Amino acid sequence: MTPKVSIVIPVHNGMPYLEQALNSALSQEYENFEVVVIDNASTDGSTQRLRTVENPRVRVIHRTELQAAGLNWTQAVHEATGTYIKLLCADDLIDPCIIRDQVAALESNPLAVMAASKRRVIDAQGAVVKRKHGLSGLAANVNGREAIKQCFLAGTNLLGEPASVLFRSEVIKAAMPWHSRWPYVTDIGTYAEVLKHGDLVTIDQVQASFRIAATSWSASLVGKQEEQFAQWQASEIQAGFVSLSRWELIR
């Protein structure tokens, strides 16, 4: 039997994109998967929509009290029962082949703890803004420490948003909670904790869509991104996970 995969969707006021995200999760070309939705006290109709879902693959947990986004992401991961876990934000999308291909990549690379695919960037209406994005300069199989170092040198998250990646369940659960000290690096900061335990495998195919919308978490952090990324870099260097030469520090 193929390993079970959990697609976890943390939601707070996910309309109007929630329906598309849920449909993309349920359209996977893979048999053994579940979809776990954590409805974080939504007030925009998301709760009512989720109450109508009757698909046996879908399990919805409704919260009546709002919790911080990082805690909602953490709860979503802990609710998962699969061997592998993918977190899908309620405004993003995944292609039908992504679970199949990422599971195959991790099953073929027992030292890898995380798989990442390239993604496209879409706007609020779903129009493609950038057709291929991410994983620049990364080999098919990369040591975890080296993967994070390449992100440092690029000054950005090369690995992609959560929709683009798949984790080994026991490793991502051990890394919880989701990084929250600097909200802009919540994803790459958590990836670093995962990659301290193994390698990264990459897939040179576009298999997810990251949406740029005025309601997104990233949009709310405009003006703070560079500062927060630099502070996170400094903390990882101080902790000794990533070491840079003098010239790499200048770069």
Strands, helices and their partners?
Layout: E1 5-11, H1 18-26, E2 33-40, H2 46-50, E3 58-63, H3 69-79, E4 84-87, E5 93-94, H4 98-107, E6 112-122, E7 128-133, E8 141-142, H5 144-154, E9 165-168, H6 169-174, H7 186-195, E10 199-211, H8 217-220, H9 225-239, H10 246-250
Parallel strand pairs: 1-2, 1-4, 2-3, 6-10
Antiparallel strand pairs: 4-9, 5-10, 6-7, 6-9, 8-10
Helix pairs in contact: 5-7
Low-confidence stretches: none
Q: How does the major sheet shape up?
A: 10 strands, mixed
Shape verdict: globular
Name the CATH architecture. Alpha-Beta Complex
Secondary structure: helix percent: 25-40%
The total domain count is: 1
**In CATH terms, what is the fold-level topology?**
Spore Coat Polysaccharide Biosynthesis Protein SpsA, Chain A
Report the structural category. alpha/beta
What do the pLDDT scores average to? 94
**Span of the ends, CA to CA:** 47 Å
Residue fraction in strands: 25-35%
What oligomeric state do the depicted chains represent? single chain
Number of helices: 10
CATH superfamily: Spore Coat Polysaccharide Biosynthesis Protein SpsA, Chain A
Helix-strand string: EHEHEHEEHEEEHEHHEHHH
The level-1 CATH class: Alpha Beta
